[in-house]
Specification:
Structural class of chain A: mainly alpha
Radius of gyration of chain B: 22 Å
Shape of chain A: globular
Largest sheet of chain B: 5 strands, antiparallel
Order of helices and strands of chain A: HHHHHHEEHHHHH
Shape of chain B: globular
Distance between the termini of chain B: 75 Å
Largest interface: A-B, 32 and 28 residues
Strand order of the largest sheet of chain B: 1-2-3-4-5
Radius of gyration of chain A: 19 Å
Oligomer: heterodimer
Structural class of chain B: alpha+beta
Strand content of chain A: under 5%
Chain lengths: 253, 207
């Protein structure tokens, strides 16, 4: 039994708490209201910045310098393909069968013809990755509010809802499904981290340059982005009361 | 006789064609965004100095191709919020100057990332008489597409940009969040000082 399975009840509890603390004002845009845990969060943020500066960023730079670009691209594609499988699953959970079939097709093509996802042949065939979905977005789609902003040590920006979803994902995340033994999936997760961080090296520089308060910028960016993703890029405008995205699927009566 | 008829017709057609540009048709909002994006991306692709991060060149490009299409006053006013209206003309002027420097720096950082991207403008969903609307675009290149949306307002026959959304995050919202602490602690003057310091340190880092 996976040790993290013990976290499942905790996750359910956190989820329930999220639902209980449901207040529409906690969505992005109305920021300070969505950050009751700012004191703790700022500590976690400082810790993460430190870890990034001394370990993760240098490792990502090393990875980018040492590993040739085609190899990095292949590695990125493999993780992208695993992500696509997870997206497909979540699209079906969000009752979007057409999009789900499309992503499923893309995953199948890349897994079979693209040698386990190493090559993104589907993209060349016009099956582009048009979205990326995770369990946190699926919960948001069904109307579960984000809850307070939460900075996780090492993992970075999150919310109570997204953290709960992450805990649920731990057992069944695609990475764990593909590399079942911890001795295999831990290095895989590390490699994925390096891939993601290397991809953000330039963006991080831009981010540092414009920030007056990086904690606030990162928080606002994360909350806005998550909200936008849940509404597939078109969240309702500021003043209107938020309506859960799934209601769009219902016939108007 | 017949020949003369044709000559007159031709002359009339030429005259008509010549006057057409004078009665310029209002440009559709999506066509406007497409034009501006293509102009900027093409200019970056042609300019090795910009790709290498030459801030002077990038600033010139932004001043020439982007700023004329931006209602910068409105962006600043909404980023600052209520304190903008009670500010003195001198404060407003200094704020505009510092904020503009910061914006150009922001934009310059983003432009150094342009390599083989193209911009796809999504179909416009707006009534023809709308004076404020959103144009949605997607930047496609290596990796996942990046959402890039614009809020536009009608300005004469054309359009002006008054907010930009990168990956789900509106720029004005971003700056509101960044400005709020200084504004509530020390007012607009404190914010201007903060921006000036930030701009100075950025300039120092680049030279």
């Amino acid at each position: 039994m996976h040790p993290l399975r013990r976290l499942l009840p905790a996750a359910c509890l956190a989820l329930a708490a999220t639902a209980a603390a449901a207040q529409p004002a906690s969505e992005a845009g109305k920021t300070a209201a969505g950050d009751p845990w700012e004191r703790y969060n700022r500590h976690a943020f400082v810790f993460n910045e430190l870890v990034d500066a001394v370990a993760i960023k240098p490792a990502a730079q090393f990875y980018q310098t040492v590993v040739p670009s085609p190899v990095r691209k292949g590695v990125g594609n493999v993780f992208g393909n695993i992500g696509d499988a997870w997206t497909t699953f979540n699209l079906f959970l969000q009752a979007k069968p057409a999009a789900g079939l499309n992503m499923g097709m893309r995953t199948a093509v890349n897994t079979v013809l693209g040698v386990g996802g190493l090559f993104d042949v589907a993209e060349e065939a016009g099956l582009e990755r048009f979205t990326s979905e995770d369990l946190g977005q699926t919960l948001g789609f069904w109307g579960i509010p984000s809850g307070p902003y939460l900075v996780l040590p090492l993992l970075g920006p999150s919310t109570l809802r997204d953290t709960s979803a992450r805990l649920l994902e731990v057992n069944d995340s695609p990475i764990v499904r593909v590399w079942q033994e911890p001795r295999d999936h831990n290095p895989a997760a590390l490699l994925q981290l390096l891939t993601i961080r290397a991809g953000l090296l330039n963006a991080g520089r831009v981010f540092d340059e414009i920030a007056l308060d990086k904690y606030v910028l990162l928080r606002d960016a994360y909350l806005s982005r998550r909200r936008s993703l849940i509404y597939d890029g078109e969240p309702p405008d500021g003043d209107a009361p938020d309506q859960a995205p799934y209601k769009k699927l219902l016939p108007a009566w | 006789m017949e020949r003369r008829f044709w000559m007159t017709g031709l002359a009339a057609a030429a005259l008509l064609a010549a006057t057409l540009p004078l009665r310029a048709q209002p440009v559709a909002a999506d066509a406007f965004v497409k034009q501006v994006s293509a102009d900027v991306i093409d200019a970056v692709k042609l300019d090795k100095a910009i790709q290498a991060g030459d801030v002077g060149r990038i600033r010139a490009l932004v001043d020439a191709k982007v700023m004329p299409h931006v209602n910068f006053q409105r962006m600043t006013a909404s980023s600052v919020g209520p304190q903008w209206r009670s500010a003195t003309p001198d404060q407003q002027k200094r704020m505009l100057a510092e904020f503009q420097t910061l914006m150009v720096n922001t934009y310059a950082g983003a432009l150094t990332q342009v390599k083989d991207q193209t911009v796809a403008v999504k179909p416009l969903r707006a009534a023809p008489d709308q004076t404020e609307l959103v144009v949605r675009t997607e930047v496609r290149g290596k990796g996942d597409p990046i959402q890039l949306d614009y809020r536009l307002e009608k300005a004469g026959d054309g359009w002006k940009i008054y907010d930009v959304n990168v990956g789900g995050f509106w720029l004005v919202d971003a700056y509101k969040g960044q400005f709020s602490k200084d504004l509530s602690n020390g007012g607009l003057d404190a914010l201007i000082t903060r921006l000036a310091d930030k701009n100075k340190s950025l300039a120092a880092a680049k030279n």
